[in-house]
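During the first year of the project, the team set up a workflow for recording each protein of interest as an amino acid sequence followed immediately by a discrete structure-token representation. This format lets reviewers and collaborators read both layers of information side by side without switching files. As required by the reporting guidelines, we include two representative entries from the current panel. The first entry is reproduced here exactly as it appears in our internal archive.
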Amino acid sequence: MKKLKLNIITKGYLPLFFLIALFSCKKESTEIGLDLIGDESLANAINIEYSNIICRTVSDDTFSVNTLTSSLLGIINDPVFGESKASLVVQPRLKETGINLNNTTLDSVKLVLTYDLTQVVSTPTEYVAYDIHYGDLTSEIILDVFKLDESLNNDIYYNDYTPILGNQVGTFVGKFNLDSVKSIIDGESIMLSPRISITLDHSFGQEILDFDEAAFNTNDNFIASLQGLVIVPREVVIGDGAIIAVEANNGSSSLNLFYDDTLSLEIPLGISSKRINFFETSHSAEIEEQKNSTGHYDLTYLQSLGGSKVKIDIPDLVELIEFPEEVVINEAKLVIPIAEQYLDSVKYPQPPRLWLLTPDETDTTQSLTQFKDTRDPRFSEAYYDKNVDGYVFYFNRYLQYLIKEYQASGINKFKGFYLSIPVDFPITPHRAVINSNTQNGSMQLSVKYTKLN
């Protein structure tokens, strides 16, 4: 399977020079040919509305998880989509070496992961902060913690990675509490940033204290003794479940050992710590049917975390692409409406934006693997528009590109589109049900063009 690695959206504020380019091309002009043919030609423009649009849910692409700025963790039993799991590999690293822990006795050991609460994304007009959580935060879930039984090298890891698990060393049963945590430090009450604290097995903590002294001389030695920890969601106990974001490359997340009544050792998950997110989905029967079938469906399903995307085929565009006369595309517009009955603004809000990508030329089951920037004609992005209860895509440049390619080579390169939820950094856990019924006018495709005489 071809691996998808996209890297155009980053968390936080973007550099000014990139914003200028980004804002200038977020929405294509609906009249890209006017510089060639003049304003008066619009009166002679031909408008075509297409109703033969074939939509079907298919498996999403795999993607690299090496550069995610935040990591996801949790489990959801979505009543529409099925079960989704976000598991996490973390790697504690010493912040100081040469520690002597001979003849020490463990009191307790905890794995602390600080939550990442929001993601800042630039829209065409402003910056918007989105919550990085998904599902029902009142749910109770079970997480299991295992030792990692393999070394992490410098290879690229993907969302379908399957780690080798060692012994189980802890279990968490409870809710994701995103409120600040009160702690008593040196007799003072201090509010800490929101976090999840997982108590690990006493024997595991004592095992670390009993490591050979050489294990604490260098980080390489320490990682050889403790290669990492794997947090794997087991099940939802109460509610639908939830997925949240944690900072697995931040010193505020750490493995904490308390020993000899008053002493402690903090082993942080710092910037040098390796971390790998991996995701699992068990789709509902309806989605699985579409993934293993052909033809058109009036409801289609989008899910992030490597879940599902929607394949869109438009057979009737062939005639325009292979049109014998020279034409200029003034506007090519695709309206993607959401199925409102499946919206839940609290548990499952609509994704802030979607991508419309072309299939990869070397493997048409996968989306375009890479593009230089958002001005690539094979890429289009749309933000949720409450006026249409959906997303409006413009692909003028891509359609013009296809026409020119056909005129030059005699080859029609159009293979349809893939509609997907963007792979952001951090990735956002979202899903959407699309109203892909073209007969009642919900999904709309129109092209406006002018012949060049």
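The second entry, processed by the same pipeline in the following quarter, appears below.
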Amino acid sequence: MTENGDARASWWQWGCLALLIGGILLVVLTGMWLFSRPTVQPSGPRPTAIVWTASPTPSPTPTPTPTPTPQPTLPLSPTEIGVGVRVQVSGTGTAGLNMRASASTAAERLSVAAEGEVFIVAAGPTQADDLTWWFLRDEANPHREGWAAANYLIVAP
């Protein structure tokens, strides 16, 4: 506003507006000129890019080591558990038998064997926590294995 309360713009406001519009117009025209110029090709041969790629070194494929079938420990009676003997989970009811990472009731539980499941004894016996432990392996799934308490195992019929 001017001193007398007039709402008209003063001469310096109009000047600033003209400079602003002129600057914008200058930027637009300069951009149009730069982008409309033909590109100049250098004379002579053109450089060629060389792309370096590394050939992967083949790594040897690991050969799976066959898991040996445990040989029974001798002498065994028909009711005695030993390495190589097939055992059945018995006496757990619906709770099942914990198969653990090591022979201990505090060890990580890897799996739960259901009542009646059959396993092969792969190692043992080991004494811990007032229990006898056997290392069992599922014949149908060799990756399913763990330590189990002998109190809930019988020789499979």
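For the second entry, the following points were noted during internal review. The radius of gyration is 42 Å. The first helix runs from residue 11 to 36. Both points are flagged for discussion at the upcoming steering committee meeting.
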